[in-house]
Design goal:
Blueprint lengths: L18 H10 L8 E7 L2 E7 L8 E6 L2 E6 L20 E6 L4 E9 L2 E8 L12 E2 L6 E2 L3 H4 L1
Antiparallel strand pairs: 1-2, 2-7, 3-4, 4-5, 6-7, 8-9
């Protein structure tokens, strides 16, 4: 089955916040969206990717970053009671999923709790890219005129 990777297009929209890109990616990758995931804003410059990974342990999951992406892989041993199930609705197979990270976003940590893998992200803009205030000079003066709201009061 052919799959298509449109994740390079995500760079313009951030960490997958645009639903249209997610729906298009899901439609093109017919294998399904396993594991299911959420992306949450946890602060002004902080985000969390949460993946549903029932039955996986810390030893079964690896998280790594490379080339502006975070890669999550899950592999576990086959259940010895494999033939005892009458119905198997919980997926047992391994998985691999990647998320394109925008510039200046890094993974700050990952933890597994109650079948959910949480990957915390933080955006750290370099000082040169942060907004800065430029003082406006008065044409008659050689010193900047400070616009301070506390002085006006």
């Amino acid at each position: 089955m052919a799959t298509f990777d449109i994740s390079p297009l995500f760079r313009t929209t951030g960490v997958g916040f645009d639903r249209a890109w997610d729906q298009l990616n899901t439609a093109l990758n017919l294998e399904g969206g396993f594991p299911a995931y959420n992306i949450l804003r946890t602060g002004e410059e902080a985000f969390r990717i949460s993946l549903a990974v029932p039955g996986f342990t810390e030893n079964d999951i690896s998280v790594e970053t490379r080339e502006q992406s975070v890669w999550v892989r899950g592999e576990r041993a086959v259940d010895p009671d494999h033939n005892s199930y009458l119905y198997r609705g919980i997926r047992e197979a391994g998985f691999q999923r990647s998320f394109q990270l925008p510039e200046h976003v890094r993974v700050s940590g990952a933890r597994l709790e109650s079948g959910m893998l949480h990957i915390d992200l933080v955006r750290e803009l370099p000082e040169a890219l942060r907004p800065r205030r430029i003082e406006v000079m008065n044409g008659d003066q050689s010193r900047p005129v400070l616009k301070d709201s506390a002085k006006a009061a």
